[in-house]
Write a structure and sequence with these properties.
- By secondary structure, this protein is of the alpha/beta class.
- The chain folds into three domains: 5-186, 3-Layer(aba) Sandwich (Rossmann fold), CATH 3.40.50; 234-413, ANL, N-terminal domain (Rossmann fold); 416-511, GMP Synthetase, Chain A, domain 3 (2-Layer Sandwich), CATH 3.30.300.
- It is globular, with a radius of gyration of 23 Å.
- The mean pLDDT is 93.
């Protein structure tokens, strides 16, 4: 089954239903599908063949989804690119992915033209507007083509979505996600995560379509739901509140940093957000105190998704019923978990040294196996062999399972500290420090230490108007966790560095030391 059938079927069943809202612009499913067909024909006329790749470098626009589904229809691989990348970074991805065409929004016209020598494999540059020089005009291409296009037959393991990892630990690698992978992802949104999906739903895309929000749209489009697309280049909580109230938004995907910005915004109490049924968040963990604040402000609509680019949305999930700010000690503890495995997903914890599976409660590396696991890393058989063994994806995350199968993620294996021979997990310390009333955000890293090997350093941003000291925070930790886990030092900065998806860039923090 070609993923494009998600749209083709909805266009047949709900032709007049609104598929896309972008500002004052609205597209019905019939018109949305027709434009995708025109683009698929245009790409074919340009000489692109099934299994070629097309890079999509755009801010959030309706044409972003048109580009994605046109590629699916034509049997082409989509290479979605983070729009905040430097031209040298996105040029690396375009070139490494062997993309034969790039469909870009006009914000990137000049930077792509200035980078053509870095992307010699590209044959066509298509811009949404303001075409000049080598750039082809998107609308002109569409207008010359038929709005009928028979979706290409594809094999289940053909590339659909080539997702480049965010590069928090080095050069990005391309996770090869197939039609099989994304259909499995889609079907189990219906089964586990949002079982009430229907054509009556309204989805807000305030996060980049190049990542989680774009994937989250697939099950929505497959059910005939309406997709509202925001193109704000920075997240605007009050605009999000306004749209949720105006359109009765039922579902949304957000990074934890976006949820924190919503909760901290004074305008949250001025809007009716009761239509929200599922506010899905992922890409990074939320600290428990932040999560409690979100539950108290937003109600029981939060759903945590733990996945990776290599096993997308999701490996485990923490449902609405588990998001409670008051309850038994066991229930409250679960707020620190990533939930339970999806119905069709296996997970296990192994000892990194021996490879043996560990019992409940013991920390080791998290492995997963399912139809969600990528085919491999693009043009990188060595990295693929290191990451996928006997069908199991070695996630690089450290954690443990409790007796009921709830997964607790401690940290990336690369972020675990060894100080004085003790394994120390930064998240445990971060969960303590975030409870201090003056702490807004915190990241814990290891820095070189002659005596201990690594010393624990906390890097903190403060709540506006609040003050504290290094000694006060270290002593605060001593009151909550073992003394050997407390930070040896605390640095205060204005903002923690993050990538476009809200993950704190610990590599950048460590570089200073």
């Amino acid at each position: 089954m070609n993923l494009s059938m998600l749209l083709t079927k909805s266009a047949r069943t709900y032709p007049d239903k609104t598929a896309i809202i972008y500002g004052l612009k609205k597209l019905s499913f019939k018109k949305f599908n027709a434009r995708c067909n025109q683009l698929a024909n245009a790409l074919t006329q340009l000489g692109l063949k099934p299994k070629d790749n097309v890079a999509v470098l755009q801010y959030n626009y309706p044409q972003t989804y048109e580009s994605i589904f046109a590629c699916f229809k034509a049997g082409l691989g989509v290479v979605p690119i983070n729009f905040r990348l430097h031209p040298k970074e996105f040029s690396f991805i375009i070139n490494h992915s062997n993309a034969r065409a790039v469909i870009l929004s006009s914000e990137f016209n000049e930077s792509i033209l200035n980078s053509v020598e870095l992307i010699p494999k590209v044959r066509h540059l298509i811009t949404l507007s303001d075409a000049n020089r080598e750039l082809l005009d998107y609308e002109t291409l569409l207008s010359a083509e038929s709005d009928i296009f028979p979706d290409k037959d594809v094999q289940p393991d053909d590339l659909a979505w080539l997702f480049y990892t965010s590069g928090t630990t080095g050069m990005p690698k391309g996770a090869t996600l197939t039609h099989r992978n994304l259909i499995a992802m889609t079907m189990n949104f219906y089964a586990d995560i949002c079982p009430g999906f229907s054509s009556e739903d309204v989805i807000l895309h305030a996060a980049p379509l190049s990542h989680g929000s774009g994937l989250f749209g697939l099950p929505n489009i497959g059910k005939g739901a309406t997709n509202i697309i925001l193109n704000s280049k920075s997240f605007n909580p009050e605009l999000v509140f306004k749209i949720i109230e105006e359109y009765g938004v039922t579902n949304m995907f957000a990074a934890p940093t976006m949820i924190k910005m919503m909760v901290d915004n004074h305008a949250i109490d001025e809007y009716d957000l009761s239509s929200l049924k599922a506010l899905n968040y992922g890409g990074a963990p939320m600290l428990v105190e932040d999560l409690k604040a979100a539950i108290n402000k937003l109600g029981h609509c939060l759903v945590q998704l733990f996945g990776q680019g290599e096993s997308p949305m999701t490996i485990t999930y923490l449902s609405q019923k588990d998001h409670i700010s008051e309850g038994s000690p066991e229930q409250i503890k679960r707020l620190a978990s990533a939930g339970i495995a999806r119905t069709d997903v296996e997970i296990k914890i192994i000892d990194k040294t021996t490879g043996k599976e560990l019992p409940a409660g013991q920390i080791g590396e998290i492995l997963t196996r399912s139809d969600l696991v990528m085919k491999g890393y693009w043009l990188n058989p060595e990295a693929t062999a290191e990451t996928i063994k006997d069908g199991w994806l070695y996630t690089g995350d450290m954690g443990y399972l409790d007796e009921k199968g709830y997964l607790f993620i401690m940290d990336r294996s690369k972020d675990m500290l060894i100080s004085g021979g003790e394994n120390i997990y930064p998240r445990e310390i971060e969960e303590v420090l975030i409870k201090h009333p003056a702490v807004r955000e915190v990241s814990v890293i290891g820095v070189p230490d002659e005596k201990w090997g690594e010393a624990i350093k906390a890097i903190v941003t403060l709540v506006p108007g609040k003050i504290t000291t290094e000694d006060e925070l270290i002593n605060f930790c001593k009151d909550h966790i073992a003394s050997y886990k407390k930070p040896k030092s605390v640095d205060f900065i204005d903002e923690l560095p993050k990538n476009n998806y809200g993950k704190i860039l610990k590599r950048e923090l460590k570089a200073k030391y």
